[in-house]
Amino acid sequence: MIERYSLPKMSAVWQDDFKFKTMLDIEILALEALAKLHKVPPSSVSRIKKKAKINVSRIKKLEEKTHHDVVAFVNSVGQNIGQDARYLHFGLTSSDLLDTTLGVQLKSASDILIQDLKRLLSVLSKKAKKYKDMACIGRTHGVHAEPTTLGLKLALWFDETRRNLRRLETAKEEVSVGKISGAVGTYANIEPEVESYVCGKLGLKSVNISTQVIQRDVYAQYLATLAVIGASLEKFATEIRHLQKTEVREAEEPFAKGQKGSSAMPHKRNPVICERICGLSRILRGNAVVALENVALWHERDISHSSAERVIFPDSTMLLDYMLNKFTAVIDGLLVYPDNMLSNLIKTRGLIFSQRVLLSLMETGLARSEAYDLVQRCAMRVWQENIDFQDALLDDTDVAGLLTKADLEKICSLDYYLRHVNKIFRKVGL
C-alpha cells in the first residue's frame, strides 16, 4: 500500500516553530564562530546557549509593536538571556537570518519531495512492467493512430519522472545556500569565516557573493523546477482523464467504496483526483512567475520579494508534495480495462494499419505519392461506408493487383508494431 501523503511533515517545515528554531541555531552558530575569532567571550556563548529559548507567542506579541519579525525575535530571545544578550545578533542583518533559514527550509522541503518522486518512480516501474505487453491504441490529435501498449505509456512517464528527480536534485543543491555577510554583503561588521562556519554546520553552501540578500534567480530556478514537475503530473493526469471517458474507458483512477461521484447522478465515477492535480499545477506555474518577478530588486535590496515569498515557497512545496502523493496513489490503484482497449483497437476496422500497407505498396515498386493516394482512397471508404479496411483494399483493383489477402493479413499484425517494446524498456532501464 502507498504511504499516506506526507503533508503534515512538509507543513512543519514552514511552521513558525521550525523557522524561529532555525533562526536561533544561526544566531548561536554565529556566536560560536565569533568566539573562535575572539570577538565574543566563550563564557557568554555558553550562557546564551543554556538560556536562549523560543517563545512564538511572545515573538508575535512583540512584532505587533515593532512591525519587524526579526527585531521581535531578537528581543524575545534576549529577554531570557540577561546581560549576555548584547552579543546576540552581533554584526548580523535580518536577511542573514531569513535567507539562511530559507536555505534550511528549502533543503528540508526538497528532501521530502525527492522521496515523493522516488516513491512515484517505484510504482511507475512496477506498473509499466505489469502492462508492458498490453496492447492499446496510440492517439495523435485525439484520433486513433497506431498500436502501442499501456506499459509504454507508463514507461514514458517513468522516464520523465526520473528526469524530474534529477532536476529537483540539482535545484536542491542550488537553494541549499546561506549568507552571513551583513547589510550590503561586504562583511563590514562580520567576518567571512562566520558565514563559512554557520553554513557548514547547517549543511548549506555559502554563496559566492551577495548583497543584503541571496540573489533571487536561485529561487526562481527552484520554483520553475517545481512547476515543471507539476506540468508533468498534469500531463499524466490529463491522459488518465481521457482514458476514463465513458466512450474510451480503457483505464480509470481508483474509486473507493462509499465514494460518490455526483450529488445528482449516482452513476458517476469522475476522475476527480486527476482533475485536482491539473488544477493545482496552474498554481505552481503562477508561483514560478512570481519568483521570476522577484529577481529584480532595487540596488542591494528591497523587500518587494519578501511578502510574496512567504506565500509561494510554502504553497508550492506543500502543493507538489500533495500532488505527488495523490498521483502515486492513482497509479498504484489504477483500474485497467483490457477488453475495452481491444475494442478500441478494432474500432476503426483496421485503419490503424494504413502506414504499413503504404510501405508494403512502396516495396512493390510504387512511388510514395501513388501508394499514399491508393491507401487513402480505401481509407476514406472505411470512414464513409463503415466497412473493413482489408475489404476496401481487396475491392480496389489497383491495390488487389499488388497485395493478396494473405499479404494483408500478415501486414495487419499487432506483433509487428510491438516487436521493439522490450528494446524500448531496456533503453529506459526497466
CATH topology of the largest domain: Fumarase C, Chain A, domain 2
**How many structural domains can be distinguished in the coordinates?**
3
> What is the name of the CATH class of the largest domain?
Mainly Alpha
Question: Roughly how much helix do the residues carry, as a percent range?
Answer: 55-70%
State the fourth-level CATH superfamily of the largest domain: Fumarase/aspartase (Central domain)
Structural class of the secondary elements? mainly alpha
Instruction: Compute the separation of the termini in Å.
Output: 21 Å
Please state roughly what percent of the residues sit in beta strands, choosing from under 5%, 5-15%, 15-25%, 25-35%, 35-45% or over 45%. under 5%
Order of helices and strands: HHHHHHEEHEHEHEHHEHHHHHHHH
| Strand arrangement in the largest pleated sheet | 1-2
Instruction: Please state the CA-atom Rg, rounded to the nearest Å.
Output: 30 Å
How many helices in DSSP terms? Answer: 19
Taking the sheet with the most strands, its summary is: 2 strands, antiparallel
Q: How is the quaternary structure best described? A: single chain
Quantity of strands, as a count: 6
CATH architectural type of the largest domain: Up-down Bundle
Q: What are the segments in which pLDDT stays under 50 over at least 5 consecutive residues?
A: 1-7
Mean pLDDT across the residues is: 94
- Coarse morphology: elongated
